């Protein structure tokens, strides 16, 4: 079937005029990307013979589906609601063979400004990455140790591109254990939303990175520290990455400069760097009062309630004490780490 489908694209059996062959009002990204040519059959293998009249059958089916798509496009032209119009446009292209070909051959390079590709990306996210994220957040007790719950609305990805090795420079899997040197610089954060509507609409976000595993000797327990805080981040479907370029181009409100986690010896099995993405109410800017909170004993729930923030995404990575911790401490001017006893006592040290 794949060979027949590829032959359908490469032999240009889409002859004739129709909505799927007209790119005057449709994006070029809806066209098949470099269809693969069929490789010749090796001499030691039997030749595959397509069923009789398969090309004619494909052609008739193509014309029927194309006519159905044209009717949906007509309905979409008279629709004034952007969200409803986007859904109709996605339906109009959902059975387009070229679009299906792109989604299965090039899933990582789709034009997500097109509703049909955005629907596909959402299904892919919900079928794997979202499940992995929620499993790690619950297994590692990020929920409820930081925020009480989460209904993810966006796909949050992070990476640390200052690393030169591929092992640490790519996108991080939630829950991954990273050495201190690999997270010594702020992460690049990509936020992918899948909502229908204006692709140019800018949404305002706040990013927090908290560590709920900082040892607290006064209570013989742990406290939460704020290690990174940025507000008023404007992201859209086309401009969806928080990186150095956005810092330079926009006036972001950095109310807590990035400080990586630097676990101490025997301070626990690991420390969790919990990254939370919040949507700002009504997409309005907020002014964070740095005197109103203590970054060394941070209450993320109270902070989010105070500024009307809604949690829409999250991520997490873990760290343990390693030989690069002391170097990172020196880089950030932090004091030398403590060494804790392996067994917790009944009373504070």
From TrEMBL:
Lineage: Eukaryota, Fungi, Dikarya, Ascomycota, Saccharomycotina
Gene source species: Candida tenuis (strain ATCC 10573 / BCRC 21748 / CBS 615 / JCM 9827 / NBRC 10315 / NRRL Y-1498 / VKM Y-70)
Family: Belongs to the phosphatidylethanolamine-binding protein family. Mitochondrion-specific ribosomal protein mL38 subfamily.
The protein's name: Large ribosomal subunit protein mL38
UniProt-listed Gene3D superfamilies: 1.20.58.1180, PEBP-like
InterPro entries in alphabetical order: PEBP-like_sf, PEBP_euk
The entry's keywords: Mitochondrion
Annotated function: Component of the mitochondrial ribosome (mitoribosome), a dedicated translation machinery responsible for the synthesis of mitochondrial genome-encoded proteins, including at least some of the essential transmembrane subunits of the mitochondrial respiratory chain. The mitoribosomes are attached to the mitochondrial inner membrane and translation products are cotranslationally integrated into the membrane.
Keyword Mitochondrion listed: yes
Cell location: Mitochondrion
GO cellular component: mitochondrion
